[in-house]
Specification:
- By secondary structure, the chain is of the alpha+beta class.
- It has a single domain, classed as Pnp Oxidase, Chain A (Roll).
- About 30% of the residues lie in helices and about 25% in strands.
- It is built from 4 helices and 7 strands; from the N terminus they run H-E-E-E-E-H-E-E-H-H-E.
- Strands 2-1-5-6-7-4-3 form a 7-stranded antiparallel β-sheet, sandwiched between helices.
- Strand 5 and strand 6 form a beta hairpin.
Length: about 150
């Protein structure tokens, strides 16, 4: 069931452009990070304060039908704003990995489960390892499971 409500595009032009390209092409365009071959998915969520629908591209880290959503923010000291949206509304989330979005429920993982997903994430997108060395916070990892 699609997340209902007013869509508030990202303030970042590149995010707005990539989401629009991905969605308008059914995932055939705008599906990689910049000029790389590294695949991305679109994550849709509800804003915790505004209640508006938010969308962003994230690296595609998939395993057994589940997806990791890594809140790296390039290794900065604080979590990305959208991290708080996922914590506040873990059941108001959708992923688009191809032509059609599907509903997921997210949960932040820790311990051995986080370690396994972190390893998969770094294998998919090696800069994550460097990002972790740049910050004292443990970069959060969510697992998204189809509902």
């Amino acid at each position: 069931m699609p997340i209902e409500g007013e869509y508030e595009p990202s303030p970042a032009q590149w995010v707005r452009d990539q989401v629009a390209e991905y969605e308008s092409s059914g995932g055939k365009r705008g599906n990689t990070l910049g000029n790389t071959e590294m695949p991305v998915i679109i994550v849709t969520m509800r804003g915790r304060v505004s209640g508006k629908v938010r969308k962003l591209p994230v690296m595609r880290v998939e395993h057994g039908g589940d997806y990791a959503i890594v809140a790296s923010k390039g290794g900065t000291a604080e979590n990305p704003d959208w991290y708080h949206n996922l914590v506040a509304n873990p059941t108001a989330v959708a992923i688009q990995d191809g032509p059609e979005p599907f509903d997921v429920e997210v949960r932040e993982v820790s311990g051995a489960e986080r370690a396994a997903w972190w390893e998969r994430a770094v294998a998919t997108y090696p800069p994550y390892a460097e990002y972790q060395t740049k910050t004292s916070r443990v970069i959060p990892v969510f697992v998204a499971t189809r509902v």
